[in-house]
Recover the amino acids of this structure.
């Protein structure tokens, strides 16, 4: 075995690659930790509106488990009097109808009056949710909102809505019993990558710089 001192030193290119890999890995897992911690916190306060972010609709218009959990969480907040109306945000995905329309049926069944449900049916991404929802919210005079989604999704969602100039608090839909730990870890790391790919989101601040 050759002494360590005699082993060839890695070239500059290799060292640079290793350094970048280390920084990227540390950044991803650091952000994943932040995503996870953030999503576990309930931050609800009185607001102008509740905003529920859509999730997959299954064949035949059947709501996915994520869709059901998000709407049930928002309905519970509505019944507590957190906000006077609910904006349901989500367009048509692989299977019709729109996520928003499926959510309205769930919300009404959970005790939210149909008159308190407003639909946004054009969005197909979190950024779309924020952009299209903000138009509806401003038209109705809403400035502070409670965004409801799965825990791992909430940090990026908050930042997207902040970029639209809204004051945002978040409320996680429960995932215990409907998502395995390995799946939660996968989606949490995926969200960290999404934030790294859109670093400007990380600098979004609440109105007034808070």
């Amino acid at each position: 075995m050759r002494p360590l001192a005699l082993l060839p030193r890695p070239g500059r290119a290799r060292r640079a690659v290793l350094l970048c890999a280390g920084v990227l890995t540390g950044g991803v897992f650091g952000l994943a930790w932040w995503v996870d911690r953030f999503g576990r916190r309930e931050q609800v306060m009185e607001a102008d509106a509740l905003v529920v972010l859509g999730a997959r609709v299954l064949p035949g218009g059947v709501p996915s488990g994520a869709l059901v959990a998000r709407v049930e969480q928002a309905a519970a907040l509505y019944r507590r009097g957190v906000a006077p109306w609910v904006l349901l945000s989500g367009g048509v995905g692989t299977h019709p109808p729109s996520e928003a329309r499926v959510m309205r049926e769930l919300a009404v069944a959970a005790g939210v009056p149909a008159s308190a449900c407003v639909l946004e049916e054009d969005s197909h991404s979190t950024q779309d949710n924020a952009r299209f929802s903000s138009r509806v919210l401003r038209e109705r005079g809403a400035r502070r909102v409670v965004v409801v989604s799965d825990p791992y999704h909430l940090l990026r969602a908050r930042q997207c809505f902040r970029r639209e100039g809204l004051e945002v608090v978040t409320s996680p839909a429960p995932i215990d019993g409907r998502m395995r730990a390995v799946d939660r870890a996968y989606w949490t790391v995926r969200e960290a990558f999404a934030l790294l790919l859109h670093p400007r989101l990380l600098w979004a601040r609440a109105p007034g710089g808070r």
